[in-house]
Every structure is written in C-alpha cells, then in structure tokens.
Amino acid sequence: MGRAMEIKGAWLLALAVLLSGVTAIALAAEFSADMVHKIGTMTKEGKIYVKGKKMRTESGIGQGITIVDGDTGTVWILRPAQKTYMETKKGATQPTPTNQPDAALTKLADKKFLGTETVNGYQCEKYLYTYRDKTLGTMTMWIATRLGQAIKMVHQSPEGESSFEYRNIKEGGVSASLFQVPAGYTKVEMPGMPGIGKGIGPGAGGER
Fold first, then answer.
1. Quick one: DSSP state of residue 189?
2. Which among 190, 142, 188 has a CA at the least distance from the CA of 169?
3. Three-state secondary-structure class, residue 155
4. Which one, 5, 58, 114, 177, has the greatest CB density within 10 A?
5. CA-based angle 64:198:69, to the nearest 5?
6. Residues of 47-79 as b/e, b for ≥16 C-beta within 10 angstroms?
7. pTM of the complete model beyond 0.90
8. Is residue 36 within 8 Å of residue 43, measured between CB atoms?
9. In terms of C-beta density within 10 A (0-12 exposed, 13-18 middle, 19 or more buried), how is residue 97 classed?
10. CA-CA distance, 67 to 56, in Å (whole number)?
11. Do the Cβ atoms of 118 and 124 come closer than 8 Å?
12. What is the pLDDT of residues 21-56, one digit of tens each?
C-alpha cells in the first residue's frame, strides 16, 4: 500500500504541473479543451477552460467543477447537483518564468529534453522525467510552446501506464462568467476544516 501511495503521489505531482501552467507560465493563454485521463483500461473525460490566470475544470458528467483564480489564489469547488460550493484561499500567485511544480518534480527526477513533436495540432517540447526512485518509473511530458503549458503526460511505472492530455483545443472565446460561482449556490464548509466556508460568499447573493 505504501508503494502504491508513493506512485500515486508522483503522478499527482506531475499532474499538478499540467494543471498549474495557468498560474505559472500561461499568463496570456485563453482556451478550452477536452481532458482525457486514462488509467489502465479506465478512461475519465472532462473539460478545461483557461483565461489568463483563471482556470475551470469539469468532470465528465458535470458532477464536480473546480474554479481557480490565480490572481487571488482562491479555489472554489462546486457541486452542481446540490447547488453548493466550498472555498479556500492559498494566496495570490505571482508571474514567474519557472513552473514551481516542475521545480518540485526535478527534485525527484532527472529531466531530459527529447526534442519537439506535434501533439493535437500543437508544436510541443518533449521532456522525459526519470524518477531517481526507479520503482516510480518515468514521466513523459509534452509542453505546447504556443500555450506555454503541458498538454499531454504519460506516466509509466511497474504499476502500469497512465496518461492525461488536452484534446480538441480551441483558443479564445472563453467567457469570464465561467470563473464565477453561479447565483443561487450555497457556501458550505470544507470537510475537516470547521469554520471555513461559513457566511455569505460569491454566488450567494453578495458582491464578489
């Protein structure tokens, strides 16, 4: 179980690189895309919307929505079926030429540039991360130069292969309203964090 958790942790860290490009590199990007996450024979699909330093991800059947405001460091987790949301704030992110999760990855793995390759219509820089703990395997990442962030990752380990990528990428045309909590939603507490989430918040009838 411990080894499985380590492998999952290594994968989640790499996944953070993919999702956090919105707050670290892609400061001017604006696009929407389908997200496809494969774990063995299982496939999960969803959507992502990016506008500057704001990001919205949706699960495949609309059961979960996450909105990240990179300007303020605020994260909202929406549950459309219940019309509720949770809120947490981690502090505003600052523009930086380096990707902090990538820096965390390179503490665990050796990074190697493999050249350029076209993925889903985008020219990408391809990198291989070889974890120093050999049981964690390797991570291959494709970073789209025009978008300034990774659009595909493949993790290979003794436990099998997993992949995550953006498909059907459409630049521009992303509405600012997608990054706001809809009116009529009720704010609830974060599990295990009493006091967080109480009171009037965005989407609950007050000003944001």
1. P
2. 142
3. strand
4. 58
5. 50
6. bbbbbbbbbbbbeeeeeebbbbbbeeebbbbbe
7. no
8. yes
9. exposed
10. 4
11. yes
12. 433 444 458 999 999 988 888 898 999 999 988 889
Report residue 182 as tokens: 């809809």
The order of strands in the sheet holding 54-59 is 109-119, 122-131, 138-144, 149-157, 160-171, 30-39, 42-51, 54-59, 65-69, 74-79, 84-89, 186-187
The beta-carbon contacts of 195-199 under 8 Å, at least 24 apart in sequence, are 196/86, 196/87, 196/88, 197/86, 197/87
Q: If 0-12 CB within 10 Å is exposed, 13-18 middle and 19+ buried, where does residue 128 land?
A: middle
Per-residue tokens: 161: 């292969």
3-state percent helix, strand, coil for the chain, nearest multiple of 5: 20, 45, 35
Distance CA 124, CA 88 (A): 33
CA distance 208 to 192: 25
Residues with Cβ within 8 Å of residue 140, at least 6 apart in sequence: 114, 126, 127, 128, 129, 153, 154, 156
Element housing 2 (H / E): helix 2-24
The phi and psi torsions of 102 (rounded to 5 degrees) equal -65, -40
Query: Which residue type, as a one-letter code, is found at position 81?
Result: A
Residue 153 and residue 132: Cα distance in Å, rounded? 18
What mean pLDDT comes out for the span 196-205?
A: 36
Domain boundaries, the chain: 2-187
Amino acid (one-letter) located at 24: A
Contact criterion met (CB below 8 Å) for 16 and 155: no
